[in-house]
Model the fold of this input.
Amino acid sequence: MWLVNGRAVRDLFYTDFTHGGNDKVYKFVPKYEIWLDDNLSPAERRFAAVHELYERNTMAYKKLCYDDSHDLASELELFYRHNPKNVMKRIRYEAHRAKDDC
Done:
């Protein structure tokens, strides 16, 4: 997972890049990588991270399309926004799952 210059990503690759992205959605993100916009506050990064990891994993393992994966990831993100206590635990779990895809 990388913090990237979101403005540069928007200028060079994709004007609608916001919050983050992953290799299953964007061809310009290298394989097995998650990018988070460095403009996000540290408090927001954890929610973008859980969203991107889960979205990537559902596309990789469940073979869901982007729209379905994004919807599920948005629901999970909202859950953790209301229940932030275990968000880091979930991030570690999803990151471990993503490593299995290597």
The two ends are 14 Å apart (CA to CA). The chain has four helices and three strands.
